[in-house]
Amino acid sequence: VGSDAPRSAWRSALARVTESERESRDSSPSAWVAAAWQKSVGALTAVLAPRPPPPVGTLLVDGRSPDELLAEVTAIDFRAQARREEAQLEALASDGMAAARELEQRQHAVRSVIDALVVGRASADAQAAATRRALQLELDERSLECDRLHRKNRE
User: Source organism's superkingdom (predicted)?
Assistant: First the structure.
């Protein structure tokens, strides 16, 4: 086993995660999801940091050292965890969008009620003004009639 084997495994694992991250970011508009992927890639990079080649006589499985196998298993675990986090974040984003839509509907209903109250108030104000004018006209007519009767009584 040459000294490039751990680096090669690290590069291929990082390339797979980076590709998954890019696909995820392109398919999901959520900034939260992209941040979760970035966090996972950072943690994976720390775990997969290059290590010196295994000592001579180390048992190899499929030509890979225990460190390489551990790095691969860890990478798989990180990807699965990132997918779970992505699903949770997308569910939260979906819930948030549903709550925002419900809030918009409620705001629209409140605006409709306010508009109806304003229209009702304007209508009531107009009706009150018309009633005041009618009463004032009637009062003026009665005042004129009273004045006429007073003049007539004086004469």
Answer: Eukaryota
CA distance linking residue 84 with residue 94, whole number of Å:
15
Q: How confident is the model at residue 58 (pLDDT cuts 50, 70, 90)?
A: low
Q: What is the pLDDT of residues 60-117, one digit of tens each?
A: 666 677 777 788 888 888 888 889 998 998 888 888 888 888 999 999 999 988 888 8
Q: Whole domain around residue 129: which residue ranges?
A: 4-154
Output Rg (C-alpha) for the chain, integer angstroms. Answer: 40
Q: How many angstroms separate the CA atoms of 10 and 71, rounded?
A: 8
- Residues 6 or more apart whose CB falls under 8 angstroms from that of 127 comprise none
Instruction: DSSP letter for 59, please.
Output: -
Residue 3 contacts residue 53 (beta carbons within 8 Å): yes
